Amino acid sequence: PLHARLTELFQGDQRLPHDSGKLVDPEYLSNLGILHYNFSSIDDVNRIAKDRDYKNRDEITISPSTLGDAYESKVKTFFHEHLHEDEEIRYIMDGNGYFDVRSKDDAWVRILLEKGDLMIMPAGIYHRFTTDEKNYTKAMRLFKDEPKWTPLNRGPETDENQYRKSYLQSAGITA
Ligand code: KMT
Ligand code: NI
C-alpha cells in the first residue's frame, strides 16, 4: 500500500517524515495524474513496460555503501524540485524512499514508496526524491528509449515549458 500525506513546513533533515498527519487518498493522487501499483513480481513490471512501450531500464542503489562519498551530494541533487519532459516510472526493488509531488495548490505531498511499489508520474509535474532515515533505496528506472532523465530544475523557464503547460491543462490546474 502506498502512503501519501501532506507535509508540514520543511525544517531540518529532508529524510525525516515531515508528516502533517493529513492523509491523501488514491483519488487525490490520480487527480494529479499519478498512477501507482504494488507488484511483487517482475513480470508485472515487464507487462507495464511492454504496454507503455518502454524499451530501456536501469537500476540504481542509493545508499552510502554503494555511492560512497557521492551519496550526500546525490541525495541533495535528487531533492531539487524539478520536472521531466517524459513521464517518470520508478519501481522500488528494495528499501524505500520518499517522492514529494506538488499538489494543485502547490503544497508538498510526501509519498512513501516501499518495496514492490511502482509509481508513474506524468511529464511536467514538479517533484523531488529523497531517501529516508534508513538511507537505502534500490530502484529501477524505466525509460521509453535511451536512458534519459534530465531533471529541469524549477524556475521561471520551467513554468513556461510546454510540457509543464500541458500538464497543468490536463490536471485542470489554473494558476
Ligand atoms: C528523480 O527523478 O528524482 C529520480 O529518479 C530519483 C532517483 S530514483 C528513486
Ligand atoms: Ni524526477
UniProtKB/TrEMBL annotation:
Fe(2+) binds at H82, H84, E88, H127. It is found in: Cytoplasm; Nucleus. Its cofactor is Fe(2+); Ni(2+). The keyword ATP-binding does not apply. InterPro entries: ARD, ARD_euk, RmlC-like_jellyroll, RmlC_Cupin_sf. Ni(2+) binds at H82, H84, E88, H127. Belongs to the acireductone dioxygenase (ARD) family. This is Acireductone dioxygenase. It comes from Carpinus fangiana.
